[in-house]
Amino acid sequence: MTDIKSMTVEEIKEVMKQVGEKPFRAKQIYSWLHEHQAASWEEMNNLPKSLKDKLREDYPIVCVEKVDEQISKQDGTRKYLFRLSDGNVIESVLMKYKHGNSVCISSQVGCRMGCRFCASTLGGLTRNLLASEMLDQIYRIQVMTGERVSNVVVMGTGEPLDNYENLLRFIHILTEEGGLHISQRNLTVSTCGLVPKIRELASEKLQMTLALSLHAPNDVKRQELMPIARRYSMDEVLEACRYYFEQTGRRITFEYSLVAGVNDSEIDAEQLAGKIRGINCHVNLIPVNPIKERDFIRSTHQAVLKFKNQLEKYGINVTIRREMGSDIDGACGQLRKSYIDKTESEN
């Protein structure tokens, strides 16, 4: 691996050995990359020029480049479109809350999961992101705003557990000493339900929150909305979530996008409560973001409230997601999709 920003301190020590340098340089380089978010070797002013010259060619520093930025007039949410070194584009969102700044990052270019209400998946999967490309979305946003990020959600484009090795690397570099050192408890990773990977992640005993995209109260409806549900039944997915809680002690979040006339009835709420009762969990209700390629209609405010009340009646902990940046291309994949459409129509 020549992607030095994805390396651990120990791996950089190995590089120092190979280029005939002292091991202490590894910590300096690591600090420049992750604590100071340096975008080039030139910025590392306590490294000898001879070392920078050696590293520049074989160890380029991976950085994302801002292509577009939209700022919500309603709540200051910022949506960024970043270009990667191979020309692909990804998106990230900065949301400002009273308790601190939260950044939502992408884990893949595109997605192959095919969830029917999501714009991220329309063009399929192009490739996985490197750990460095995931980290650098946060770093560039910090550098551009001059403000610290305290919470990270891996919920942008892509299925994080479909990029498992890079995701684990990203988590360790983000949360351990020597970098931003964001608490694992301030990190949320979303998945549509890759059961073997949920179990593998549980065995790591990390302290982050797992958010499962559930979106339906039974297998029939879930299979209509999410192709992955044909591979893993709801019972299998929920069993993996119970295992995750047993291994980590971390409460599960169930994401539930409400689509009018599809999954928002009283019976749906009753079925959902029956399925998840007994799991230490929290349900996050999300009125679906309509996208022009699909004919889904978002549930009315009244239907959302009714659904929430119904779940609460069964003793389920539930909130309605506060909409951030609804006046910009705020939903997953929308900004990237409109950029690609525009670029293609110009060529």
Which features would summarize this protein structure in a list?
single chain, 347 residues, alpha/beta, two-stranded antiparallel ribbon
Describe this protein's structure.
The longest helix is centred in the middle third of the chain and has 15 residues, at 131-145. Strand 2 (78-83) and strand 3 form a beta hairpin. The chain has a 10-stranded mixed sheet, sandwiched between helices. A two-stranded antiparallel ribbon has the order 5-6. The mean pLDDT is 92. Helix 4 (131-145) crosses helix 5 (164-175), helix 6 (195-203) packs parallel to helix 8 and helix 9 runs parallel beside helix 10. It is of the alpha/beta class and 347 residues long. The chain has helices at residues 9-18, 24-34, 49-58, 131-145, 164-175, 195-203, 219-225, 234-248, 266-276, 301-313, 334-346, and strands spanning 65-71, 78-83, 89-97, 100-105, 108-110, 125-128, 149-154, 187-191, 209-213, 252-258, 281-287, 318-320. 36% of the residues lie in helices and 20% in strands. The chain contains 11 helices and 12 strands.
Uncertain stretches of 5 or more adjacent residues: none
Radius of gyration: 21 Å
- Describe the largest sheet: 10 strands, mixed
The count of β-strands is 12
Q: State the helical fraction.
A: 25-40%
Q: How much of the residues is beta strand, in percent? A: 15-25%
The overall average pLDDT, rounded, is: 92
Helical segment count: 11
The secondary-structure class comes to alpha/beta
End-to-end Cα distance, whole Å, is: 35 Å
| Global morphology | globular
